[in-house]
Amino acid sequence: MSNQLRSNAAVNAITRPSRHVDWPTTKGRLSYVSEIFGEKVFTLSKMAESLPKPEFKKFVEQVQGRQQLDRSTADAVAHAVRIWAMNKGATHYCHWFQPQTGTTASKHDTFLSLKTVNNNGVDETIALDAFSGGALMQSEPDASSFPNGGMRTTFEARGYTVWDTASPMFLRPAAHGTFVLYIPSVFISYNGEALDEKTILLRSNEAVSNAAVKLLHVLGKTHVKRVITTLGCEQEFFLIDRSLYQMRPDLKMTGRSLVGSVPPKHQQLEDHYFGAIPSRVVAVLGEVEMELFKLGVPLKTRHNEVAPNQFEVAPIFEEAAVAVDHNLLTMEVFHTVSHRHGLKVLFHEKPFKGVNGSGKHANWALSTDTGENLLDPSATPETNYQFLLVLAATLDAVHKHGGLLRAGIASASNEHRLGAQEAPPGIVSAFMGEHLDEVLNAVEEGRPVNSKNTAHLTSVKVGGTQLDIKVSTLPDISRDLTDRNRTSPFAFTGNKFEFRAVGSKQSPSFPVTLLNSAVAASLNDVAAALIEQKGEAELPTTDDILAVVRKFIAQSKNIRFEGNNYSQEWVEEAARRGLPNIKSAPAAFKQLLVPANVDVLVSQGVLSQNELNSRYHILNETYTKNQLIEANTLSAMVSQSILPAAFTYRKELCDSLRGLKEFVLDYKSTPEFTALEALHGLTNTLQSSNSALLKVIHTVENLGDTDKEAEVCGSELVAALNTVRNAADALEGVVADKHWPFPKYAELLF
Asked: What is residue 44's three-state secondary structure?
């Protein structure tokens, strides 16, 4: 029966009609991307067209100044956006927020309102469409039903969503051709504590802006009023056929395969990366892009990734909070569109054992409100003193608070990816590239940049060198002086840092919040050191700046590493440098409680002590729940499907041997007996390991202490689960294919 279901699923995957969606047209031709970009977004331009000029000016001033929105302006915006949305088919609106679940949430309200009027002396109730500024600015979800870390009890249900005016409203499809107006929002408790991912990100953006502005003002750039955190999130994922997905309880319940052996061919031929994108996938990507372009999401790149059925999309960078909104929106659109095409998107960091996992490389930088990138080294970084100060502060932050950054990327799912198949390890380090590393060494040592140290690069200009390809018809090409290091958790890539260790399933909000907070603290330290160094002088001299840069470069030097982060040599070297090698998520979570890390978050107002304790509790609780879901799912698969399949095959072999006994005197030398013997041993091993797993599950469920539960899950439960998996995978190689109950890797990945 199971083989028939697998066969049917495979046939369905091949014979299913392809979905066709027409690209929009403009004046009889296919539309340019720029012509449909932001079509479903209530942009500032659209607001300007529909608001009185004084109200629009007031709104822009309030957003730019990060001030509160007054009621009259909110009423004007609410009226304008309702008319715009309803003219496009909207019937509902919702406050769209980001609870600590890794996903988004919303509840939909109609624009319908009722009003009683007097009609010839008789009261009559009439229907009308209305949307007030109060309804736009605030709504009320149930705060106790979302992760809150004990800040809300079940009977204390009230919470609030509040419109984030800096992120534009947009339309998403609903039923029957209608739309819903989405209002990006923050989510707080009745007492004002942050219950979401966005509130703390916005706080950290302000913290790093205040610190960077302070530093720039010390340098004499008093015209800068605000510094913006910019972010671009590369998103990796797998796409598999939904018919096969439906037959895998592990993928449905946990997002990853809990059993499965790597097929003879996987990624070892290196023929997937940047290869031809399969036609079904191109259809999905095209429809996803079309929807996201209309939603104002600036997707730029798409390509095959290294593993079979693995892909990546990447956007143009944006302001961090908007970039997070757009990343989460990208994931949501992928879920809905892939479903329409009969496919399932997997964002889990390690859905398949033995092939590459997926990350969400967060490209992070700082930019002034005048458009200047503070991490742009220019052609001569050794004399770009502003850049050196910001770079020194960033490296200082990573050095002092590497444990905090490690906590930001820790989860039950990312634990499977870190340190394996091109994912960075749990040791947080920073990669500069040979040239910039030499520049930092030269500044620290008070000497000129030594071109001999970069002789193989031909020149020491950051702008790049020329490569002669030795083909007369091809031009010389420019080469960056900084190579890429894909094993580094935090790598400098020209004019930004790439935080490569962020997991594909994660919201980028929390890791970026922690990074912002750490950098803000170090920027404040650099500014304070510079003020002290310059003394009573109005502006610091070059010598003042270099003295400060030299100090911070020297004290953060241990965090810089230019080599292979996978090597055992680096593990040993990192230990000598005193860098922590945090391998488990529960150990990483504890970094949130380290006094120096607590001070960074609490003193800058990013998280209160109560909010921080709450998040620590939620992280541990979520980790434990995810591990228990995996363990119970695997145990059920073993008991209800895998062992019965083994029993059926064992009976088949026994029946065959009974028949052979009449004709083969030495029946124990037959292939059937050898297969039965191997099957019998592996079946017993699987049965006993599954029983051991159930005992550990029972132990965890009865501990009653969140911290202890997470610790036991991270050690005993994970080990017991892996033992069961190894036995099940070994059995997969022995049981006849017709009896195996689940689609195998060869079917899922090819």
From this structure: helix
